[in-house]
Automatic annotation (TrEMBL), chain A:
It is found in: Membrane. GO terms for cellular component: membrane. This is GerAB/ArcD/ProY family transporter. It is a multi-pass membrane protein. Belongs to the amino acid-polyamine-organocation (APC) superfamily. Spore germination protein (SGP) (TC 2.A.3.9) family. It comes from Alkalihalophilus sp. As8PL. GO terms for biological process: spore germination. Keywords: Germination, Membrane, Transmembrane, Transmembrane helix, Transport. It comes from the Bacteria. Pfam families: Spore_permease.
TrEMBL record, chain B:
GO terms for cellular component: membrane. Its main location: membrane. PROSITE patterns: PROKAR_LIPOPROTEIN. Residues 209-377 form the Spore germination GerAC-like C-terminal domain. It is a lipid-anchor. Coiled coil: none annotated. It comes from Alkalihalophilus sp. As8PL. Belongs to the GerABKC lipoprotein family. Residues 1-21 form the signal peptide. This is Ger(X)C family spore germination protein. PANTHER family: SPORE GERMINATION PROTEIN B3 (PTHR35789:SF1).
Length: 374, 385
């Protein structure tokens, strides 16, 4: 599992990996989640707000990371005596979180494919094939995964932008009015939902360790988040403009339905949702493979001896992912599962960031004391 | 490693089977659906599926085997739910039904009057095979009748209906096509809406005009709007794309005004507890046909006069429909309600529930119609000799 040590992630690569990590199943359901949360068209404002909050989170973390280049957050914390155990605890939670996240993504993917593309193929087969593919990708190490993301992301963004621009033709943007009729509170309530769809930033804790010290910068990451926010914003606005807010609350996968709505003039193309879902497969593949990579590396570092053989971990991990993926019985349970995972992820991010800062502060104090006595 | 390779090869072999294989020749494409009440049992209804026979399409086959048999067939099933009837066809005909190319749904007027549309649209928006672009129409008389006879030029009656329906820009008597998507939008928003009517008086002929007025609160059809009403509707909604207006000078000689561009601006104001809607209809077009002897159309005076006649006429069409809606049917089909929602949200929240209806506020609204007509040119003839 050792990738060449000479490889380090450049800032641009980091930014794009982050984008392809964040854009996952979230964008398929985001317009509905927003619409049914507040029943107003103000969801787009909260996307901007959530984007700003996420940027703040990232700035905070990057500031911290600059103090320990070449190490992951948990490795950094794990140097203290008591902290070692806290770091272990956090990494265990992260492992559970990543496992559930992969399971969730794979389950939604299987559901979607079953619903729109192949209604006879068993979901289990689709999920298994997906996981086998990502496992192969993981065997190529960090460099391989990062480069896969770089390769696929343009396709995804291109198709999504195409979808958005073609569906604006028949859109009625007055559906977005009135703006903030009930004041700021609903916008804040919706921000909660939107924050969850920005999850994936926790990969920074692990991947930024592979960056050179001089290259740990905030700006490229902010650009990435802005790109994601822009995509979310456009998708939501166009969905509302096409379907009205009231109808959006009724549609399970508004973004796919948007693709179904689309007819290229001339009737040359129909059934564009197949294309859309195929592209979606790519993003979900990206997300899962990034998470799986981190999962495997984290497991190795926290719970295995230095030189132990780790070839079999990815394969064992997919076995558990597969089982967890099919625990929820229905689509409603799956979405509920997704919500729990999101909350787990958010709290983990905030908690580990807090721990990081606390540890940093204590060490600084200690160093000052030592300097004082010497 | 060799073992692994072997496993992979075996996997490849076992995974190449296609679960979802559906041969084109084994699928029956449903192009149109008609819903009729069942004469024997009022609790059930009849669904007629209008299925394509591609091999009999004209110019379809390489050997030019057109004319051999009908390019479509209709099959009717009776039941209380849609899906049950779809599966019922599987028992009776060789090919399973596929709805991906469904173009038209026609609902019998009698069913439309019973809030039937909610049930129909449920399956047809829920299922992934159906598209939101499928046209919906209400028929005067038997719905399945419209699929019986092939009309000239197109292979299937449903395709003819779809294409006629898309001619709405040319005829002022037709409303913009209503598809399942728009209707479900109106349904979730509890708005009243119109659905085009299809009328088959004689065999070999069809007519799409007029519209069924659906009440927002219960999705029941309450009445038909005639062609004159639809003209007014198109003016108020800004949908008179490329229609024509026939007007007369002093009730004698007729002339035609062809609309080239049209926009309607509705302005809402709330003054002294009164809801005031200012409807400004602006249109520009050409003077296209004249039966007036000795008319000098290149004269500014004459044009002014023509414009006045036209604006009077358009104003009449619009106001008479608005009046009808306010005084007779109490339905806000012009979406004035959402306009209030946009401008006076707090006020709208209070009155939302009693906007329409007999004791509603819509009835009391003050609607003013202003029309600006411009004859921009008169084609190539200046004088009628």
């Amino acid at each position: 599992m050792k990738s060449p040590l000479s490889y380090s992630i450049s800032p641009g690569e980091m930014c794009l990996t982050l984008v392809s990590m964040i854009v996952g199943v979230g964008v398929l359901t985001l317009p509905r989640a927003l619409a049914s949360e507040i029943n107003l068209a103000d969801g787009w404002i909260s996307i901007i707000l959530a984007g700003a909050i996420i940027i703040l989170f990232i700035i905070l973390y990057v500031r911290l990371q600059q103090h320990f280049p070449g190490e992951t957050l948990l490795e950094y914390i794990g140097k203290g005596k008591v902290w070692k155990w806290i770091a272990r605890g956090i990494s265990l939670l992260f492992l559970i979180y990543f496992l559930c996240l992969m399971a969730y993504e794979v389950r939604v993917l299987a559901l979607l494919i079953r619903m729109y593309l192949l209604d006879q193929t068993p979901s289990e087969v689709i999920a298994a094939l997906m996981l086998l593919c990502t496992t192969y990708a993981v065997s190529k190490g960090t460099q391989g995964i990062v480069h896969l993301s770089l390769m696929f992301l343009p396709i995804v963004v291109f198709v999504l932008l195409g979808l958005i621009s073609f569906t604006t033709i028949k859109a009625d943007f007055t559906n977005l009015l009135p703006v903030m009729p009930e004041g700021v509170l609903p916008v804040l309530a919706a921000t909660k939902v939107t924050l969850l769809s920005f999850l994936g930033i926790e990969i920074l804790f692990f991947l930024m360790a592979r960056m050179k010290k001089s290259e740990i910068k905030v700006f490229p990451l902010i650009t990435g988040i802005m790109l994601v926010a822009l995509l979310y914003l456009l998708v939501t606005v166009v969905t509302y403009a096409n379907f009205t807010v009231d109808t959006t609350t009724q549609i399970t996968f508004p973004t796919v339905e948007l693709a179904k709505q689309l007819e290229i003039p001339g009737g040359f193309f129909e059934r564009l949702e197949s294309l859309m879902i195929t592209v979606w497969l790519i993003t979900i593949f990206n997300t899962i493979s990034i998470v799986q990579l981190i999962f495997v590396q984290l497991f190795q570092k926290s719970f295995m001896k230095e030189n132990a053989k780790a070839n079999y971990i990815p394969m064992i991990s997919i076995f558990f992912i597969f089982i967890v993926a099919f625990i929820p019985d229905s689509i409603t349970e799956t979405f509920m599962f997704g919500e729990w995972i999101s909350w787990l992820g958010t709290s983990l991010y905030v908690f580990s960031l807090g721990c990081g800062y606390l540890y940093f502060w204590m060490r600084k104090k200690k160093n000052e004391k030592e300097e004082y006595y010497s | 490693m060799k073992k692994f390779m072997l496993i992979f090869v075996l996997l490849l072999l076992s995974l190449t089977g296609c679960w979802d294989r559906a041969e084109l020749e084994e699928v029956g494409f449903v192009i149109g659906i008609a819903f009729d009440p069942n004469p024997d049992n009022p609790k059930t209804f009849d669904t007629t599926f209008h299925i394509a026979v591609p091999s009999a399409f004209s110019g379809g086959g390489p050997e030019g085997d057109s004319g051999e048999g009908s390019p479509f067939f209709n099959i009717t099933s009776t039941g209380v739910t849609n899906f049950n009837m779809i599966r019922d066809i599987s028992k009776r005909r060789s090919r399973s039904l596929n709805f991906e190319h469904l173009k038209v749904i026609v609902i019998n007027e009698e069913l439309a009057r019973q809030a039937f549309i909610t049930g129909v649209l449920d399956l047809y928006t829920r299922d992934h095979e159906m598209r939101r672009k499928t046209h919906v129409l209400v028929s005067k008389g038997e719905a399945k009748e419209v699929y019986m006879d092939k009309l000239p030029l197109e292979d299937m009656p449903a395709i003819s209906i779809e294409m006629i329906n898309e001619n709405y820009t040319k005829a002022l008597e037709m409303i913009e096509t209503r598809d399942i998507g728009t209707i479900s939008e109106k349904m979730t928003a509890n708005q009243s809406y119109l659905i085009s009517g299809v009328n088959k008086e004689h065999r070999e002929d069809m007519n799409i005009s007029g519209a069924a007025l659906m009440k927002g609160e219960d999705n029941k059809m309450i009445t038909w709007l005639n062609e004159e009403d639809i003209k007014g509707y198109n003016w108020v909604m800004g949908e008179a794309k490329n229609g024509i207006v026939e007007a007369t000078v002093d009730d004698k000689e007729s002339f035609i005004f062809e609309i080239l561009s049209h926009a309607t601006n509705v302005n809402y104001e709330r003054q002294n507890d009164q809801n005031i809607f200012n409807v400004l209809i602006k249109t520009e077009g050409t003077f296209s046909e004249s039966w007036i002897p000795g008319l000098e159309i290149n004269n500014l005076e004459t044009i002014k006069k023509m414009e006045q006649i036209l604006s009077k006429k358009i104003e009449n069409q619009a106001t008479s429909l608005i009046k009808k809606m306010q005084e007779e049917w109490y339905c806000d089909i012009f979406y004035f309600g959402p306009l209030i929602k946009r401008k006076e949200y707090q006020y709208w929240k209070q009155i939302k529930e009693d906007w329409e209806g007999e004791a509603g506020i819509f009835k009391e609204a003050n609607v003013q119609v202003n029309v600006e007509v411009k004859i921009s040119h008169y084609m190539t003839q200046e004088k009628t000799s």
